[in-house]
Amino acid sequence: MKIERKFTTEATGAYGALAFTTTVSEIRNPDGTVVFRNDAVEIPEGWSQVASDVLAQKYFRKAGVPAALKRVKEKGVPEFLWRSVPDEEALAKLPAEARNVGETSAKQVFDRLAGAWAYWGWKGGYFTTEADASAYYDEMRFMLARQMAAPNSPQWFNTGLHWAYGIDGPSQGHFYVDHQTGKLTKSSSAYEHPQPHACFIQSVKDDLVGDGGIMDLWVREARLFKYGSGTGTNFSSLRGEGEKLSGGGKSSGLMGFLKIGDRAAGAIKSGGTTRRAAKMVIIDMDHPDVEDFINWKVIEEQKVASLVAGSKMHEARLNDIFAAIKSFDGSMDGATDAAKNPALKAAIKAAKKAMIPDTYTNRILQYARQGFTSIEFPTYDTDWDSEAYISVSGQNSNNSVRVTDAFLTAVKEDKPWELIRRTDGKVAKTVSARELWDQIGHAAWACADPGIQFHDTVNAWHTCPEDGAIRGSNPCSEYMFLDDTACNLAS
């Protein structure tokens, strides 16, 4: 390829026409405590604080960047594209705590992204001349700095770490196509051929531990989440609650497995940062467990409300008991005896009315007899990242139901709708299509899930129908294609 310079010149390079400045980036907890702070983030002039924060908090490599580097000569590769590795001799002269640092400048990120792309392009024979490769390297860095182009998150997280800093790790089960042989090859390291794809759509079989089955999917999801990618799956192949198992007994149903996947996703920090795993869960409207799925998050939201209200009520009523004991003018035995202390009797009565368990009321009386004068009962709030939300399920995915024209017609005409068993294809239950539609509407109003995917309409636009139907999407639903495929996004 010939690359014509549009925004840069050979003399000024990538950044010659750009001004850079420094800014502060920090993350605070709801209580005001600082979680992350970088006092000197170098960014292009004109970048918003939000853009600067995203780069500094999410995409900067926080650790493992060698403080001293050296270039690795490579025959047939232009010097400006030689990759770098730690300079062990120079590092040995530094204090141990100063040998590894993190990225602090946007230039470092732009350099490693565009540098790795240009390096791979050169190795693959993409560029006509060395000048074309140099033009590409400069033009790409300029466009990144001016926000004229940007890759998706996994590229920011992973690309160029091996090329720019020599960062590597053991193989994580990723594969790549060798450009020389054209063959699918298992990567021998984590970052030389990293996982930079945007989002995936993965299939799942109605199998507990086999390849392609439920537990295998959690492993594959974890691998993608770890390196910053998202994934979506249509779980409608799994048998519903009460359907027979091959070894005897009955299935616990779809929801039990979805809760396991939700917990697994919540345990993984996407790209190694505070970014949440991006996960889409999809169910067809004829699945036997679709009603439980539709109302899953509604019920979990109600649990959060109960935790918040209940915890605050406990704190208030239990400390009222302490206050009644403290205000009693007499002995401690009398103060903790409801028959002798009218204020205590009223406080206990109020606690009972508020449904405070007797075990807690009795415990407060015991604490008081031991000399305690108050209790710090943990209270919860409705912050999305709070302990209350962490303790309930369904908070780590976008949920969608997949509707067909037949279902929408049944809703329109107020007809019954059959839910079909996955094991034998027989009817598990018949419900009102319109009532099911109302449940979807109420759930979406109450907790913003589930979303709706229009199966027949999507497949009418399918570009590769001979390879199978489109059954799902990635977490944001801008990518809809075949199962077990991935997209690459540039924006």
Give a structural overview:
There is one protein chain. With 491 residues, the chain is α/β, with parallel strands linked by helices. Among the domains are: 20-168, no CATH class; 199-293 and 393-487, Anaerobic Ribonucleotide-triphosphate Reductase Large Chain (Alpha-Beta Barrel), CATH 3.20.70. It has 16 helices and 16 strands. The chain has helices at 49-59, 88-92, 106-123, 130-145, 153-158, 161-165, 214-226, 254-266, 290-326, 332-335, 342-353, 358-369, 387-390, 405-412, 433-447, 455-460, and strands at residues 20-28, 34-44, 65-66, 69-71, 84-86, 100-101, 175-177, 184-186, 199-201, 230-234, 278-284, 398-403, 416-420, 427-432, 451-454, 485-487. A 6-stranded mixed sheet has the order 15-12-11-10-9-16. A two-stranded antiparallel sheet has the order 1-2. A two-stranded antiparallel ribbon has the order 3-6. Helix 7 runs parallel beside helix 8. The protein is globular. The two termini are 22 Å apart. The mean pLDDT is 92.
